[in-house]
Amino acid sequence: MDERLSCNLLENVLILKECRLFCNVNTSELRAVSQIAQEVFFDKGQCIIKEGEKGNSLYLIKSGQVQMFQKSIKTGESLKKEILYSGDCFGEMAVIDEEIRTKTAVSMGNSIMLRINRDDLYNTIQLYPSIGIELFCRIVKMIYKEKQYLEKLIGDRQNMESV
Questions:
Q1: In terms of CATH, what superfamily is 3-162?
Q2: What CA–CA distance (Å, rounded) separates 137 from 38?
Q3: CA pair distance 91, 49, nearest whole angstrom
Q4: What is the per-residue pLDDT across 33-44, written as a single tens digit (0 to 9) for each?
Q5: pTM for this one?
Q6: What is residue 39's three-state secondary structure?
């Protein structure tokens, strides 16, 4: 392996270690994930994923920033959600079950992403089952936090309406 490829692999392992999905995966297993991660470049304003489209990969931000958008149920208008930074990921549900994208992601400047394809990840999980267990645990925690947030939002709204 040449020095440039080796440095890039190490750099990708460090980025994966920052990511909430992979932060508890050990280094040798992260190397395996790093080997299936494809580096993809996006220009400012370029759409990375689009709400409503079928997905089959997750993205991890290696450098740059990404603005997330989601359509309003009431108006259909695209609303700005969060801004994601290096080490953040999105599209993780698509690697579980090729789900329809629930948000649109747009590069805020020149960005480098690591794209991990569902089939490649599944093959890697077959070789390293502990990666799958860790991803499962992380995604369940994310869903639980989202559920708590929505329940609080609904509760706050009901309290406001009863006043």
A1: Jelly Rolls (2.60.120.10)
A2: 24
A3: 8
A4: 999 999 999 999
A5: 0.84
A6: strand
